[in-house]
Amino acid sequence: MVSRAQKIILVEDSPTQAAKLSAQLEAEGFEVKACSSAEEGLREISDNPPDLMVVDYYLPGLRGDELCRRIRMNIEARQIPVLMFTVDDTHAMELRGLDSGADDYISKSADPEVLIARIRALLRKGRESQAILGAAQPHMRDVWMLAVDDSPTYLEKIVLELEQDGYKCDKAASGDECLKKLDARPFDCVILDLVMPGMDGIAVCRRITEMRRGLRNPLAVLMLTAQEGKEDLTRALEAGADDFVGKSSEMAVLKGRIRALLRRNFYLEENRKIIEELKAKEMEAVRAKIEKEAAQARASLAQKLEIANAKLEEANRELESFSYSVSHDLRSPLRTIDGFSQVLLEDYADKLDDPGKDHLNRVRRGCQQMGELIDDLLNLARVIRHEIKMEKTDLIVIARAVMEQLKKANPGRKPEFTAPPKLPVTGDPGLLRAAIENLLGNAWKFTGKKMGAKIELGTMRKDGETIYFVRDNGAGFDMSYANKLFGAFQRLHSQEEFPGTGIGLATVQRIVRRHGGRIWAEGAVDQGAVFYFTLGGPDASQ
């Protein structure tokens, strides 16, 4: 990709001088727009802002120094570098140009190579700034200068002069000392001697240029030398120096150029702060937008959930109604089938052979099993729809009542049952009773063929959580099928071996979940099983 040519506005009322300078700049690859008056230059800035301006001091109407002041007062244009270009090469004129806001000052009689070198140095500095809207007065703080010179006499002279102007100063007698001080604290400007023993000013300047890339605030470098040759000026500016001043110049000139450098750096620092503030405000706006959109999304989701819940409630009511209707419709023909089968067995027993009687008994057992399945499905539906009422209750009281019922229904069995004296919990008494009935009923059933059957209800603490369990030493199960235990109609044993509907553990799981808990199991074939569960409500035992 070819980069665009940098644009320079040349404000020069002499057509001859304008043509000559335009040709020189265009030969260096710059795009030049010549304006014959300050007023025309201001219009051009508004229409097509340049990368740099070269302004003649003596212009008809609005002079060059006043043009500089207007540019500096304009927030959108204040970052444009300005080079003052005039026939008057006196120190007084140079000071007036710099004080008006110009970044650099050069005589029209100067060597063209010096002019180009100074223009390129200003353009390099100009790229560091960003043209943005909005500005504020720079924060007033101490300005720190670092003077570097191997001559103690000249070093003391510079420091004294700068401190008289209100600057805070530090000094270094060598390049190495300079770099150490720059590492130790921030400075605004370095006044650097070109010729020094050891590391000269050019080498130090290159090191500073590398350091500046990582600095938060801009750092100006002014090269100072007694030689003042064109070659040294070019080397210094190419090494990264922002300006080049001869030691033979009046101290007022040095101070004027320092002010010009600091002014540009303060603009850069001000712009950085404004950019950061704008970025912060932009992020704030983005966060506010995201939060607003999130709030709207939450409100929309809540509305949709409310509608969905209402539909679910209606569907559950219809399902419950359907369940009772189906239950009633199924029970009636089942009772009829079972009843007539029984009549046949009782009234026509002498006319039926043994296979016929066996067939009728099978029909009756199927009807009774279907009845049990209907009852279990209805119980599962009630668990899902039941409105929980949390109360303090004792699982041991429930468990002992369940065990008494099981013993009455099976008087020939006497398994060993162990449990703590009390096991207080907080939950819905009706649902907890259903859960304990299913868990103890399973333990009772699967220890039916075990000599010395044992059933235990207990509790333990793990990771600050109370875990309840029902353990037995019965038939157990293969752990590879553990994920099927709590699914409806999932059975790991045949109906002939251990009768059942496969609904009990699914019911227990839903009861535990409705209490905010979880349930899992461990077991081994012919070595028993343990069912663990938690309850998410307050622990009444603590």
Characterise this structure.
- The chain has 14 helices and 17 strands.
- The chain has three domains: 7-126, Response regulator (Rossmann fold, 3-Layer(aba) Sandwich), CATH 3.40.50; 144-280, 3-Layer(aba) Sandwich (Rossmann fold), CATH 3.40.50; 388-533, Histidine kinase-like ATPase, C-terminal domain (Heat Shock Protein 90), CATH 3.30.565.
- Helix 5 packs parallel to helix 9 (230-238) and helix 7 (175-184) packs parallel to helix 8 (201-212).
- Helix 8 links the parallel strand 8 (189-193) and strand 9.
- The strands form four sheets. A five-stranded parallel β-sheet has the order 2-1-3-4-5, sandwiched between helices. The protein has a five-stranded parallel β-sheet with strand order 7-6-8-9-10, sandwiched between helices. A five-stranded mixed β-sheet has the order 12-14-15-17-16.
- It has 542 residues and is of the alpha/beta class.
- The radius of gyration is 48 Å and the shape is elongated.
